[in-house]
Amino acid sequence: MIGSLRGRITSKTPPQLTVEVGGLGYELEVPMSTFFHLPAVGEEVRLLTHLVVREDAHVLYGFGSEDERRLFRALIKVSGVGPKIALALLSGISVTAFAECVKREDAAALTRVPGIGRKTADRLIVEMRDRLAAPQPSEGGTVLAPAVSSESEAYGALVALGYRPAEAARLLKSVGPGTHSTEELIRRALQGAARE
User: Fold this and answer.
1) Where are the domains of the chain?
2) Separation of alpha carbons 156 and 135, rounded Å
3) Does 4-63 match 66-137 in CATH topology?
4) How far apart are CA 11 and CA 27, in angstroms?
5) Which tens digits make up the pLDDT trace of 131-170?
6) d(Cα 30, Cα 133) in Å, to the nearest integer?
7) What span, in angstroms and rounded, lies between the C-alpha atoms of 84 and 31?
8) b vs e for 174-187, b when ≥16 Cβ sit within 10 Å of the residue's Cβ?
């Protein structure tokens, strides 16, 4: 898996760009939220990435922030939402605004994004409600969803291991208070699950 790229931008055509890294040109698709903040062609850039392997292609997606990439990865796990729709969502609405729409169950705001119909918006609200941790303000006063912490990383790992979101939250809560690393939280949660 390619986790990030640092290189020189050789072309920009929304929503695609090419980044040259060590003589190789990587074609990426990026949401407009990232595209608008890219430096000029010829300048250096660092992007977080997610590789989607399909039967007919390998497509590399690029993101300017970890919050964007995390939301993209959560969105493509929702039934009926593929990378194209996830990219459209990130292009049409910020991570913070998306979290607010889910929290307020505002399907109408989501349907304003091209490619998102009423059924898809309703499904996003239902399925993403459990995936978005309780939003916490960051230093700049904006809301991150989910917050970057050992608890949210452990939660994400448990969900990736196949635990339902509510079950993962319950297992982490049973670990109890204290400052634990992500690995320690996961280990204790799995030990708790094994004892049940």
Assistant:
1) 4-63, 66-137, 149-195
2) 15
3) no
4) 9
5) 775 444 444 433 334 334 677 777 777 777 777 777 877 8
6) 24
7) 10
8) ebeeeebebeebbe
Q: Are 95 and 133 in contact (CB under 8 A)?
A: no
Q: pLDDT tens digits, residue range 80-129?
A: 888 999 998 998 888 988 988 888 888 888 888 878 888 988 889 888 88
- Topology of domain 66-137 in CATH is DNA polymerase; domain 1 (1.10.150)
Q: In 3-state terms, what secondary structure has residue 170?
A: helix
Specify the pTM: 0.66
Residues 6+ apart with CB under 8 A from 104: none
CATH topology (fold) of 149-195:
Helicase, Ruva Protein; domain 3 (1.10.8)
User: 53, 14 in Cβ contact below 8 A?
Assistant: no
The answer to whether domain 4-63 has CATH 1.10.10.10 is no
3-class SS shares of the chain: helix, strand, coil, % to 5: 45, 20, 35
C-beta atoms surrounding 131 within 10 Å: 20
Compute φ and ψ for 113, nearest 5 degrees: -80, 130
